[in-house]
Specification:
The chain is built from eleven helices and two strands. By secondary structure, the protein is an all-alpha fold. The chain has two domains: 52 residues, no CATH class; 164 residues, Tetracycline Repressor, domain 2 (Orthogonal Bundle). A two-stranded antiparallel sheet has the order 1-2.
Length: 240
């Protein structure tokens, strides 16, 4: 019944998407159909169902992009040859591709319109975003450590996770209404190191999201062991 209600939310034309749901219609739209009595056997009131539905549709399990990011970051973090630049490019390209067709993302934004007037919606969205941050920060830490980088004060891993998630969401909204403004390939950002030409490895494109995520990462992190600078005019004898 929660899945049936979630499908109905995506089709609801009203601003208050939750207010359009009726128990009898939810039961009828189930696969296989249920009775209204079955609905009330599980949830004694519509408000109880409403809270359960919000927990369901705002669960991280519903978001394909976040699941894909987590899986790929886990793979990258286990690679002894991890490179932060390549990790950003691969993960960001994948995430942005998946977000394009993720209905849960569109539903999240429909619910966002109710956040100011509905405490249950606001709390559900806050829990979702906190879960995303809590899930991503250990993965980001692993990738940074493997690639010899760390967060540069005053930034933290939480700051990085929040910034990248917000960037992805904002760009995806803009792409939905103006695809040409958010190209799938903008080329490497100025701070990216040159890479070898394609030799059969995964495609070398830099999506808008990947390029900007790299700029964020480059600006918010620093090498764990920065190179030692030499005083002006130092000679080989001085260095020895």
């Amino acid at each position: 019944m929660l899945d049936a209600a979630a499908r109905m939310l995506l089709q609801a034309p009203g601003t208050d998407v939750l207010g359009t749901l009726k128990p009898v219609e939810i039961a009828r739209r189930c696969e296989p159909p249920r009775t209204t009595g079955a609905f009330y056997n599980i949830w004694p009131s519509q408000s109880a169902f409403r809270r359960a539905l919000l927990d369901h549709v705002l669960s991280l399990d519903q978001f394909q992009a976040d699941e894909a990011i987590t899986d790929l970051l886990g793979q990258v973090a286990k690679d002894p040859d991890t490179d932060a630049q390549e990790a950003v490019r691969l993960v960001a390209n994948l995430a942005f591709d998946v977000m394009r067709d993720d209905p849960s993302f569109r539903l999240q934004h429909a619910l966002w319109t109710r956040a100011d007037v509905d405490p249950d919606v606001r709390d559900g969205l806050r829990r979702l975003h906190q879960t995303i941050t809590d899930t991503m920060t250990p993965r980001y830490r692993e990738v940074l450590e493997q690639s010899g980088r760390r967060m540069a004060p005053p930034f933290t891993l939480d700051t990085l996770a929040v910034a990248i998630a917000a960037l992805a969401e904002g760009l995806n909204v803009r792409r939905a209404i103006d695809p040409d403004a958010v190209p799938d390939d903008v080329g490497p950002p100025p701070t990216a190191r040159p890479t070898a030409p394609d030799d059969g490895s995964p495609e070398r494109r830099w999506s808008t999201f990947a390029a900007l995520a790299h700029v964020l990462l480059d600006g918010m992190t620093e090498p764990i062991d920065p190179p030692v600078s030499e005083p002006p005019g130092a000679t080989a004898d001085d260095r020895s």
